[in-house]
Design a protein that fits this description.
5-stranded parallel β-sheet; mainly alpha; about 525 residues
Length: about 525
């Protein structure tokens, strides 16, 4: 059936309405109907593009938005969508060029600055995001979304005075805004005012007004405030309420939980190690090998990495996934590992060369001791130890009860593994599976040179503990290492960042005892590891 441009315009409006209601299939059907008779209709092309983007097809979205921009050159909305889609595809330089051109072409428009800020946040380019949002405010000084974006960015940069200022600007207009409440409470906590943070949240927070992803940050701040006030039961309730809602929001009914590195993946990996016979390691040689720093999250890996990185002969990875292609090639099943190990004698040189090629992109000197820090490489020690027979392993340990509870309460950013830390039961199960796979992997690579590093020893006797580790790496203590905090990146985004910026202390040892009742149901899973790592009951 033919359609006039006027009819196409009317149809497109119903499609945009469906899109705004998140009925993306219905909206795309409207776009398809328009394009079937008017293949160059700008609104039909644009609607098709944004529906493809909403349905997680950025490559398809890019093809359609390019046609829309060609059909109606200079349309701000079309050009903004094109820049956003380039950002989705991580073509950040192209996206930035487009945003910059739009900001210049439309000097009164705030949208190019706001959307640029959002993209930079997603790229973790926090300083660039801050600049973009500040540019938005220069155009509209009272714009709530610009202040909200700056509150988030400054919170992540731990610029607490600025976070407070922008959060207050939002709260003056929207008193219950969850994003601003999180930033303002974070500033209060940084100022050692947990009572103020708790009162603010309890007085204004309404979880029904925002989605669970935004709410979870507020629940985290409330839990932290209660914990600082020694109201441990209220703290646990806040964390449990917010994080479990987020888990269900991200993985309804348990969907999406168990890709590679998830709980089931680690269980498969441990079972696979037990079913295979690995190849005999090659004869020792002097080829370069990394130092793998592994351990369960919140076991002190970031603290250890930052101290070691202050040594003049050491370079660290900052959690870049350099080993990921190796792990993907190995897989996590008996069949995939059997094939991987069977081919390893001929593939080992290639895998090593490709790994060092990825590292070289950092500009790392061939002479540097390279520490590859990624905590949950722990279950893959069997694979990594076979690929790099000369590798050294730094195994970070912490009392399993402290480690598990600290991981649960920190609210890690979402990924396959960390989604399993949003409930205490899942965190315990992930810890148990990671440790079992790590120990099974060590049997597959029995010649691994493993140095255990206990968090408790590191924070109570840092210099002697680091000197012991350096000795294992063939290095000596440097006096500058005592001032490692002066070399921390201001944009360090790890959950451990606030602790890293403070002087080392032992106040986090034994905090699990405040939550012993919550941990008691999981004692049968944790007690074997308490015994294994020689901690007191």
């Amino acid at each position: 059936m033919s359609m006039t441009p006027q009819e196409a315009f009317a149809r497109s409006q119903s499609g945009f309405a469906a899109y705004r209601d998140h009925r993306f299939v219905d909206a795309e059907s409207v776009a398809d109907a328009i394009l079937a008779t008017l293949p160059t209709d700008p609104n039909g092309l644009y609607l098709k593009a944004i529906c493809r983007r909403a349905r997680q097809d950025p490559n398809g979205a890019l093809l359609w938005i390019k046609q829309a921009c060609d059909a109606a050159p200079g349309q701000l909305g079309f050009e903004l969508a094109a820049a956003q889609i380039l950002g989705d595809l991580k073509a950040y330089d192209a996206a930035r060029s487009r945003f910059e051109a739009l900001a210049e072409a439309f000097p009164e428009a705030i949208e190019p600055c706001l959307m640029r800020g959002l993209m930079e946040r997603q790229a973790n380019a926090l300083d660039a995001a801050r600049t973009a949002y500040e540019a938005a405010l220069s155009r509209q000084p009272d714009h709530v979304e610009a202040h909200r974006g700056l509150a988030i960015v400054c919170e992540n940069l731990r610029d607490w005075p600025a976070a407070r200022r922008h959060a207050d600007a939002v709260l003056a207009i929207e008193p219950g805004d969850a994003t601003a409440l999180s930033a303002r409470a974070g500033a209060d906590l940084a100022d050692q005012s947990p009572e103020t943070a708790r009162h603010l949240i309890e007085d204004r927070f309404d979880a029904s007004r925002a989605n669970p992803a935004v709410n979870a940050s507020v629940w985290r701040r409330l839990g932290d405030a209660c914990e600082a006030m020694d109201d441990h039961a209220a703290a646990f309730k806040a964390w449990e309420t917010g994080y479990s809602a987020l888990r269900e929001h991200l993985a309804p009914g348990g969907q999406f939980l168990d890709g590679m590195h998830g709980l089931e993946s680690l269980k498969r990996l441990a079972a696979a190690y037990a079913d295979i016979k690995p190849p005999s390691p090659p004869a020792p040689d002097d080829s370069r090998s990394p130092v793998f720093l592994v351990g369960f999250p919140r076991s002190g890996t970031t603290l250890l990495e930052q101290i070691l990185a202050s040594h003049s002969a050491i370079t660290t990875s900052d959690e870049a996934p350099f080993a990921q292609p190796i792990l993907e090639e190995a897989g996590d099943t008996t069949d995939s590992l059997r094939r991987f190990f069977a081919a390893l004698p001929r593939n080992r040189p290639r895998l090593q060369a490709e790994y060092w090629g990825r590292v070289a992109e950092l500009g790392v000197s061939d002479q540097a001791v390279f520490i590859d820090k990624l905590p949950l490489n722990l279950p893959w020690l069997g694979v990594l130890g076979q690929v790099f027979p000369n590798a050294r392993i730094l195994l970070a340990l912490r009392d399993p009860r402290d480690c598990v509870f600290s991981a649960f309460k920190r609210l890690f950013q979402f990924n396959t593994a960390m989604l399993r830390t949003y409930t205490l039961a899942d965190t315990v199960a992930l810890y148990d599976a990671a440790m079992k796979a790590g120990e099974a992997g060590r049997k597959v690579a029995p010649d691994l040179r493993v140095t255990q590093v206990r968090y408790e020893d590191l924070v109570t006797d840092m210099k002697d503990e680091i000197a012991r580790i350096l000795l294992a790496l063939g290095l000596e203590w440097e006096s500058e290492m005592a001032d490692y905090r002066e070399r921390l990146s201001p944009s360090l985004s790890t959950p451990s960042a606030p602790q890293l910026e403070a002087a080392i202390h032992d106040r986090s040892i034994g905090l699990w005892r405040y939550h012993a009742d919550a941990l008691e149901p999981f004692s049968t899973q944790l007690e074997p590891w308490v015994k294994q790592w020689r901690y007191r009951p």
